[in-house]
What we know:
The structure holds 2 protein chains of 2 kinds. Chain A is 32% helix and 22% strand. By secondary structure, chain A is α+β, with helices and mostly antiparallel strands. In chain A, the strands form 3 sheets. In chain A, strands 6-7-8-3-9-10-16-15 form an 8-stranded mixed beta sheet, sandwiched between helices. Chain A has a 4-stranded antiparallel beta sheet with strand order 2-1-4-5. In chain A, strands 11-12-14-13 form a 4-stranded antiparallel beta sheet. In chain A, a hairpin with a 2-residue loop joins strand 15 and strand 16 (407-409). Chain B has one domain (12-112, 156-329): Rossmann fold. Chain B is built from 9 helices and 12 strands. Chain B has an 8-stranded mixed beta sheet, sandwiched between helices. In chain B, strands 2-1-4-5 form a 4-stranded antiparallel beta sheet. Chain B is globular and about 70 Å long. The N and C termini of chain B lie close together (7 Å). At the A-B interface, helix 7, helix 8, helix 10, helix 11 and helix 12 of A face helix 4, helix 5, helix 6, helix 7 and helix 8 of B.
Amino acid sequence: MTQPDVVMDVRNLSTWFEQSGGLFSRGQHQSVKAVDGVTFDIRKGEIFGLVGESGSGKTTLGRTLLGLVPATAGQVLYKGQDLTTLSEKAYRPLRRHLAMIFQDPNASLNPAMTVVQGVGHPLRIHGLASSRAEVRASVAEMLERCGLAPATNYLDVYPEDLSGGQKQRLVIARALITRPEFVVADEPVAALDMSVRAKVLELMMDLKDDLGLTYLYITHDLSSGRFVCDRMAIMYLGQMVEWGDAALIYDDPHHPYTDALLDAVPLPDPSRRDRQKRLPSGEIPDALSPPRGCSFHPRCPVARPDCGWGGRDLIDALEHRWTRVDADTFERELDMVGDLAGASADAATLRLPGADAEQVRSLLTTIGSTLSPSLVDAVVAVEPDRGDTVVVFGFGPEPVGQDVAGRVVACHIHGVTRRPDGKHGGRVPTQG
Amino acid sequence: MTANAPMPEPALRVRDLQVAYGTPRGSLQAVDGVSFDLAPGESLGIVGESGCGKSSMGRGLMQLLPPGAAVGGSVLLNGEELIGVDAGRLRRARGEDIAMVFQEPMTRLDPLMRVSKHFVEAIRAHRPEVSKADARQMGRDILAQMGIPPTRADNYPHEFSGGMRQRIMIALGIVLQPTVIIADEPTTALDVIVEAQILDLLDRLRTDENVGLLLITHNLGLVAETCDRVAVMYAGRIVEIGPVVDVFANPRHPYTQGLLRSVISIETTKLVSIDGTPPDLVDPPAGCRFAPRCAQAFGDCTTVDPVLADVDVGHRAACLLQTGSYPQRMGVTA
């Protein structure tokens, strides 16, 4: 049921990109699940933050909402219409209500158009102005609203004559010239200098009140999110891991990834540099082969045996261990597991060609505690098979969002139950 | 520095560094008389906005500038002058004594060359007596220290993630045990968690290997987290320099004050910015270059060019609100 104040109602939305695997892959197709089954809503007049590292899918999600990238599955309901199924023709009259502000003002302004031409362009496209004078008047008004006053100083200049902050004001003016209702702002201040960021953010917040806007604010920078956002979602590898009220999430994060992100944010206060930080190891994994179960488990400081450990994790853990041991230990252990480059890992198994099961078992017993303890606890069998050794991992379902302390969190530490589809059955979330 | 605590011989001693670029409108003085010392094992943050000259300064130290750029002044590396030496000596210094870490590591690695081969070439270019096998082993060891598994040493650069490439670049930079690392926005292309990992790594090098670290960044948070001292640059000059704790707690220059107030952090409750834009460095204004944007400017500010003056122990600022900043009191060294 769509609540009356909901501007965008996003249901189980996925955006996958087909990868053709390259020249030598003999037609094998893989897909990158850039956005993978997200459900949330954006309410009238709010700033909804989408926060995540590069590769988390936040930009793709924003573009999918505006129809700039086709959705693979799910719905984007705007005023009761599913934008994902609209024809180009049916979409066109809606576009002026949906706008986008891009990160790089230099790339989003046409250097060959004067300010009045560039900012006024959408008015002509949408047939919102009938004469040149009308365009000029509308542009002048919007420029002044965006802090480029008096507008007569700016109307006939080219973007290159303006500073970075002024250019971004121009980008904002162009996005708002059609009087949209919903605006996706993708890293709107990331390319700007610190001393002007605040100005541009302030402008965006003022315009929201003046023009009755609703924003989706996409950022990798948690610092600005707290001040700017009403509600927010933390994304990781195409999924939302924690979403709800922004202040609640900042004050008391309940997903280990949110925790880690907040710990890693540098504070401009040298007297607190020695505070305890829980930094996860490694980086966001390849979206072509996301980890089994919870995508964050390989980096998670509180991962448990049922978080989805698998064959690839064991290889990574061994390799990581070998950066910290001497050359002899490395050679000996490499010998015990055999040729790692030839090992094949699938979701829940690791096949070590030519390795001796007894040796692998004894290695895992001795060094298990130096890897992640929950990784070794997730191993249910080490078996010989046709001259190879197969390491088998146990149950590792994908977490789903559940209500935790006033927001939605997708993490097993808040409870795991088995479900036949491989996801676990937490309580079904109500909107956070 | 303080009179009663003798500083160790600086790893880097920079005096009156000048970097100028030729432009159709005339000479652009990107760096105009920068002086500082960097002690072994010390980390000095250089902060400022785009166009303040911080990157030109870093490149000027190594004389890695585009054709047509002119470098002047003095750069003493462990007591040896680098400005004006021949190309061979410079090349040696760049590989052996100073490591440079840049923003985008992928553009610095040869995509067609295995990572291990990068090490063999870099090591043998400086130490031809080292065998290929030994060079390869040196590479593996340093990579392992930087967190790259020895099993991955023979991979190609594209097979690594952004953070791992930056680790490889750092490993490559430090394999010949330099005394100074110049890191120019080393984490700007990385995510916040990986950024923290890389900074941990640089910090470990500094404390364990006694390497001096010059961290050039626009991010004041990073400086607060990692540096001992900070220098704030504006329009080609250092306007304030001192211990990070002092400068952040008690900034003396109005520009530093504005910059610190404009930082947006998790604890921000009010947005503040600095009005105006930096001056044109082809034709900088007379007097203090920040005066046109400064809320505290008074009569002298548009005519008298302030010099760095002591405001506290090891803490100096160039602002006429500090009586010592009037040039007739010149004579204090960095």
